[in-house]
Every structure is written in C-alpha cells, then in structure tokens.
Amino acid sequence: MTATDVHPLRELLPDGSVFDDADVLEAHRRDRATFCPAGTPSVLVRARSTEDVATTLRWAHENRVPVVPQGARSGLSGAANAIDGCILLSLEKMDAILEIDTEEQIAVVQPGVVNGVFAAKAGEHGLFYPPDPGSRSISTIGGNVATNAGGMCCVKYGVTGDFVRGLEVVLADGRVMRTGRRTAKGVAGYDLTRLIVGSEGTLGVVTEITVALRPATAQPLTAVAFFPTIADAARTVAGYLGEGYRPSVLEFMDAPTVHAVQRIADLGFPDGVAGMLLVQSDRGDAAPGDLAAFERVARSFAATEVVVADDPAEGELLMQARRLVGDAHEKLGLATLVDDVCVPRRRLVDLVEGLTPIAETYRVQVLCAGHAGDGNMHPVVAFDSSDPEESARAQQAFDAIMALGLRLGGTITGEHGVGHLKRRWLGEELDEAGLWSQRAIKNALDPRNILNPGRVLPDAG
Amino acid sequence: MTATDVHPLRELLPDGSVFDDADVLEAHRRDRATFCPAGTPSVLVRARSTEDVATTLRWAHENRVPVVPQGARSGLSGAANAIDGCILLSLEKMDAILEIDTEEQIAVVQPGVVNGVFAAKAGEHGLFYPPDPGSRSISTIGGNVATNAGGMCCVKYGVTGDFVRGLEVVLADGRVMRTGRRTAKGVAGYDLTRLIVGSEGTLGVVTEITVALRPATAQPLTAVAFFPTIADAARTVAGYLGEGYRPSVLEFMDAPTVHAVQRIADLGFPDGVAGMLLVQSDRGDAAPGDLAAFERVARSFAATEVVVADDPAEGELLMQARRLVGDAHEKLGLATLVDDVCVPRRRLVDLVEGLTPIAETYRVQVLCAGHAGDGNMHPVVAFDSSDPEESARAQQAFDAIMALGLRLGGTITGEHGVGHLKRRWLGEELDEAGLWSQRAIKNALDPRNILNPGRVLPDAG
Fold first, then answer.
1. CB contact under 8 A, A103 and B346
2. Percent of chain A with pLDDT over 90
3. Strand B176-180 relative to strand B164-170, pairing
C-alpha cells in the first residue's frame, strides 16, 4: 500500500478512528521495553467501541493481517511494539468507568481507563481497588489485565487477576464473548477469564472488565529499616512473614538504589547501609503492633536503624521514596534493563547476593529494588547503550539474572509479562508438555495467528 | 471383553492397581448426584503414582477409551459417574501430603488427600487452609480442584482456585505437564493452572497440587440472628457487607431447614422465624465489634433475636447446626436435588422469595440454605423419588431455580460444577462465542475426547 491509498478499514470504521500518518505511526511503535524490535505498522486504529474492535478484527482475520493491541504502551516487555504491516489497535479511547456498584462492591470499566484514575474514583465511593503497578498513574486497566499486573499491594491483596470477575473479549475472528460473572463465585465452564488475563493480547482483545472492589482500608502506618547487609534485610522479610504477619506493603531497596533516590529527593536516609525495607500495615488499631513486631524482627537481624512514621503523612513521604525508584534509576544517565524475577521468599537472600557476581562478570551496574514480601524483585541492569559491546554484556547480565531466578526455584516474570523480551526464556521455564499446551490453546483460539503474533510463546522447534 | 479376559492395563500397571470385579465396579459407578445416568465401566484403576496415571492415559489415548477420573465421589453433579466402557481412574490412593513449608506458607499434596485431613495437618503447623466445602471431611483436594470447590470460608478467603499455585497434570495422551509456580506471583505464559482448576477432569488429570496457606487466624466469634421474613435476612446480608465488614462466615438457613436441623439436634432455636443468619468474625480483638455491628444491622432489619456466642465453644455448636444441614435434609425421608445458584447479593431476596412460587407450581418441597455472603445459595428440592411423576416435577423445579438465578444476573453453579447435571444449562449461561471457545480448548487439549467425555460442555448443535 502506498501513502496515497486509503486503508480499507477507513471504509469500515467511524471517521477519525483510522490513522496512517507516518508521524502518528512512529509515535505508537513502541512500549517501554529495552532491546525489543519494533516493526513498521500499516495503520493505527483508535477504537471507541466494542463494535470498532470487532470490525477491526473481522477485517484483520479475513485478510490475515497481524493486530497489536495497545493501551498506554507503558509495558516493559515489548508486547505492544509494532510488527511490520500490523494494525496497531489502541484501546486508550475506550476509557469509561461504566459502573461502580457500592453494594455489590464491583465495578465495570472499559480497558482504556487509567488505573490510578479508576482507583481514585473507587475511593470516592469508599471502595479500594488494590492492584497498584508502579505505572498506575499512566497504565490502563486493560494493559494491567493483559499482563496480570502486580504492584506493592499484592503481598496482602493479590494481583490484577484476583480482582477480575468477568470480561468482554473480542475473539480473533471478531466475535464477541463474555466470560466470568458479576457474582462473588461461579464455576460454569472453564475459567476463560483467567486464561485471557495475562495473555498479552494474543488470545483476544479485552473490551470490558468487571472487577471486584474491597471496602476502603484504614490509613496505613509505615516503617523503614536499614540493614548492614542485604542478607539481613532478606532474612527479615522471611522471618517477619513467617511469624504470620500480613503487611500491606513490604518493599526492598538496595544501597545503590537508596543513593539514587537520595540524589533526586533527600529523604535523610543514613549512609553506610546495604539495604532498606519499607513496610506498611493498614490494620487500623492493630497497625502499631504490626510495626512494633517488624521492628523487633528487623533488629534481631541486625537492623541499624528502624524508623516508624508517627503519622500517615510521614509514611506517605517514605512511600514516595519507593515510587521514585524508577525515576532515580533513569536519572543515572544510563540505559536500563528492568528484570522481574520472583523467587521463594527464603531464596531472596541468594537472589540479591547473586547479583553482585553477575555485575562483576558482565561489568555492568546492577541495582535492585522490589516487592520483597512476594519474592518479586526488579534487578535493574544499567549500562551505556551507545557502547554496543557493553550493551551486549548488559543483555547477558539480564539473562543471567533470569537463569539465577530459575535456579532458585523462581519464575522469569512475576508481573511484567513475557512479551517479546522473555519469550525465549519461557521455553526454559515451562516443560515440553506445558509449551505444547500453550501453543495448542493459542492455535485453537487464533488459528490464523493474527493476534499479537510472536509474543509470549517462543518459536516452535 | 468377557469376564475371563485379562484387561490389557493389567500388563502395564503394578499388581493390585487394576480391578474388574463386578461388585467393585458397581460400587464405583456413581458420585452423589441425583438424576444423573451412570454407565458400566470396563475397569477401575487405582493409581498410586503419576506414572500409573500417565500409563493409563497413554493406553486410553491409543485405544480411544474414555477415562473418568474419581476422587471420593462426593461430587453433586455426576462428573464422576461411569461412562459405558470407561476406565474409572481413582486418585484416592495418591493421598500423601508431600510437603508443608511453614516459612513459604505453601504445601504440596497429592490429589487423594482428604481436605479435612490436610487442613488439620496444616493447622498443626500453625497454618490455615481456608477452602472448606461442606464435604470437607470426605472430599479430596483433587476433587476440590476439579470443581473449584468453595465452602463457608469463601466469603472472606476465596475458593479453592485462589489457593492453587501450581499443578502437575497428566495430559490426555499421557504426557506430564507442570503448571504454575511455587512463588507468590508469576505470569510466565498462559494461566494453565486456573484453566485446569474447575475443568472437572475433562482437560487433564491432576496428580500433584501446590497450594498457598495462610497464617492461622484467631478463634472466631459467632453470632446468629433470627428474622420474621426471609427478605429481612437477605437485606441484612447486603446491608452488613455493604458497610464494609468482612465476616469469615455468613450463612443463611430458611425456616424449614432450621426445623429439619432442630429435629436431629435440638439447638434451642426459637419458633416462628422465617430465616436465620449465622456469622463469624476471626479478627481477634476486633471480632466483638464486628459482631456488635452485625447485631445492629440485623435489628435494623427487624431481627427478632440475635445471639452472640460468649465463647468459641458455644460458637462451634452454632456452626455445627450449619454443618448438619445436609444430614437434616437427607433425614426428611425424601430424595433431594441440591441446587447451587449464585446471584448478586442484592438479589438474594428475590432468589429466596422466588423459591416459594416454584415449590407451589411444581408441588414439591423447596428448602434453602447457603453461603449468603457470597450470594451462593443451595436450594434443595425434596421429593418422593418412588413417584415418577413427582420426580419429573422435581427436575422441573430444579431447572426453574437455575432459570431464576440466571434472570437475577447470577450463575447456574457457584461451587458444585456443571458435570452432567447442568451441562444443558451451561448453554443457557454462556454465549455462543464463549461455548465455541470452551469447545475449541477442549478439542485442542483432548483431541480424541477421552477425558471425561460428555461432561461440562453441552453437545454441539
């Protein structure tokens, strides 16, 4: 198709939905993954209704054209990068909150609504939407569903999928399917809701989401503890949770990350520490006791300093430090590769200690922060991307971290997804029968392989 | 095959695994469903290892022989009933608790372990396995996984699937697949764990289950409230939960059920009530406040009497009343058809009030108890099964209850599964694209249709 042709979808979709200007397409070619190829799309469709999505997929199916669904393109695995000749199918304009039902404690939203916008609106109704990926101020619920996104609250409340009751999904051939239910429970047929959640746009395009909400919780109390070794911090995590405490946040930052954050916001953190833990309890009257127990456990593992915030505002300041980690890493002036391994809690110490030899072997910086309570760490490889040789070493270090996670009984991805970035590694994590099953399901639901082809599943053979 | 033939599986499996005595087969033909056909099996295999299961399925796949997996056969939907010529594949002897890891708060079990046995063992380690189907003293974890079983704790803690982290599954052709993970989180590939959970033996045979456990909770406090109308009880449920309380139990019993229980265990329940609610809070020091709030809400909806148990033992006695419901219904001297609809909480009142006209129309008794906090009710049609005409009316009443549940925005099954009993109704609940997707997945994973064929999915066309 040359630039002067009219794309056939223009005839089928409402005015103002189909874009093929080169600059628009260029601006939509990539998500936030590092080292993932992005092709040249043929067209961008901004869907405004389920019917727009169905029309697009019906045409794509008939014409065997690949479709890449996109939300806010804040993903970190390349799942939303363009494929040569593809239709970029943006759901961003389908951003309505259709219903918040306070009595049933559920809501119905379109996929394009931003997580933070929705959570705030639920809060106005006295309700709580826990899934809080680091990207929540920009990422969409649809994108969160596509990756089964996590966040800081997961340690107590679970991940996105734990809050999804039902979906409206457009299948590869344009047919519209409803999965799941509005009710608290339901076992009518296979759990297609959970199959679609986390499938990264490869099995269907989600056009409506019914989520469960919780009653608002008490304002959390916050504490931080500083440790002379990373091992002490990691053992505190396992020890505290092992005693039966269920904090609403339990985060880790290593020394280079603490220093990077200090550089952009002086929070008065002490020098000479190897790692820091940040903990919250939202159990109201029980919260002070929860934090006192945390202090006791932390000190038993050699914590040099434990600060319990006296009021929620001070606690919010400490949380802000954790939220600045991404920015702080970016401000190092280096390219970053963000990993996402998740290991059993008692192996946290081996994971975090294992990063030093990896950094030394591949001569790159490796910083680390993450959701310690879940064992879900985000080691960050920082490198000079203008140096091809260093870039290659960074990629090797990134791979070595995943290999370490698998050796420790963990997974290559706790919450970011496989996308393009880790598809080769999926074959390392799954066994042959598991890979076969995944491919069989993909082929059954998308026999022409038009939905985000080449993502998630590694090439066969 | 005549009785003197040696079944080919005898050559392939360990001694003492293969049974074809007529009395053994007869004793294993049925689960606890009413009105479900049971065929004549060719053989019973008692698997003692994953390898036994794999060998059995490999042979069945090669020879296109249907396989019906069985646990304790305590299911209520006919999913474990024999099919003519089938292999009954019993997992009951695979009943080991392989591991309880107190630090990670997970356990690994074989499918044949009885729920109550496992929960008690976890309790000895200070851990809590919440899923508590009414059958927990006899049903197996494997069966609970097959149906995604619920119970009384679900209102606060969720269903079986919420606690399953990973599975070992033997595929239809005998290959062994591991799904999921041991870690708290993981998004590597499609969520096959959740796809297998609730699939009632039609997609694979589960041979090992990794479950999440929780720290033990405080001894719960218990209260009961009696209401002059069912509507008042139902409104109390919606009102109490709508205020943000999260009871660990919130159960309903109607007057005929209360009377039936009184008949087998005099609990001193008052006369002249239309319905009763039973509530628990396990929040330790916060529990008395939770129950005081319940009393306030119940009285605002005209509760005639509210009893708060002063100590856990008295509370346990009240819980016992709820656990006796099944026995009490059986002791009516009638056959029973146990339904399992789940509706939005605010429609509970319409569901329970709608049972009276159904009972009148079809001239059968309809009693009702259930997990009110989840909107998951178990209306029980009681009838004289020696009267074919009354039996037919009972079946019609049973169907009318499902139709009512669907009209109220609910589902035909909250926790018992579809099995044979409700497969026709699955087509009423799911849309065409949903049914197509379910069939496509079944066909992809079991192309020869040997795994529990004819269960869950309605016949096409």
1. yes
2. 90
3. antiparallel
Closest by Cβ to A103, choosing from B345, B415, B422 = B345
User: Is the model more confident about B225 or about B314?
Assistant: B225
Q: Which amino acid is at A291?
A: L
Bridge partners, B109 (sequence order): B97, B209
User: pLDDT tier at B4 (50, 70, 90 boundaries)?
Assistant: low
pLDDT at B270 over 90: no
Reported as a pLDDT band with limits 50, 70 and 90, residue A461 is: low
Please give the ipTM for the structure prediction.
0.96
User: Is A91 in contact with A113 (CB distance < 8 Å)?
Assistant: no
Inter-chain touch B414–A186, beta carbons under 8 Å: yes
3-class SS string, A264-303: HCCCCCCCCCCEEEEEEECCHHHHHHHHHHHHHHHHHCCC
Range of weakest confidence among B268-277, B357-366, B435-444: B268-277
Short-list B70, B93, B99, B239, CA closest to B165: B99
Q: How far is residue B461 from each of residues A141, B20, B435, measured CA to CA in Å?
A: 36, 36, 11
Average pLDDT of the residues in A295-315:
93
pLDDT tens for residues B286-316? 999 999 999 999 999 999 999 999 888 889 8
Reply yes or no on whether the pLDDT at B455 is more than 70: yes
For range A253-264, the mean pLDDT: 92
Indicate the helix (H) or strand (E) that contains B348. helix B348-362
CB contact under 8 A, A177 and B433: yes
Buried b (16+ CB within 10 A) or exposed e, A126-144: ebbbbbbbbbbebbbbbbb
B431: tokens are 């849309």
Q: Are B177 and A437 in contact (CB under 8 A)?
A: yes
pLDDT higher than threshold 60 for residue A1:
no
Residue B2 clears pLDDT 80, i.e. is over it: no
Give per-residue pLDDT as tens, A259-282. Answer: 999 888 888 888 889 999 999 999
- Contact list, B190 vs chain A (CB under 8 Å): 195, 198-199, 203, 438, 441-442, 456
CATH pick for A9-90 out of 1.20.120.80, 3.30.43.10, 3.40.50.2300, 3.40.605.10: 3.30.43.10
Q: How far apart are CA B224 and CA B240, in angstroms?
A: 14
Whether residue B191 contacts residue A221, with contact meaning beta carbons closer than 8 Å, is answered with: no
Question: CA A205, CA A208: separation in Å to the nearest integer?
Answer: 9
Q: For residue B317, which of B391, B182, B224 has the smallest C-alpha distance?
A: B224
State how far residue B157 is from chain A, nearest Cα, in angstroms. 11
User: A-chain residues within 8 Å CB-CB of B436?
Assistant: 175
Interface membership of B105 toward A (CB under 8 Å):
yes
Residue A93 has which token pair?
């304009």
* Better pLDDT: A35 or B379: B379
Q: Which CATH number fits domain A97-215: 3.40.50.620, 3.40.50.970, 3.30.465.10, 3.40.920.10?
A: 3.30.465.10
DSSP secondary structure code for residue A451 in this structure: B
* Same topology between domain A9-90 and domain A221-326: no
Question: Tokens 């490889």 correspond to what residue?
Answer: A381
Predicted confidence at residue B35, as pLDDT, reads 86
Q: CATH number for the B332-407 domain, one of 3.40.190.10, 1.10.275.10, 3.40.50.300, 3.30.70.2740? A: 3.30.70.2740
Q: What SS3 string covers B360-381?
A: HHHCCEEEEEEEHHHCEEEEEE
CATH number 3.40.50.150 given to B8-90: no
Q: What is the pLDDT of residue A141?
A: 98
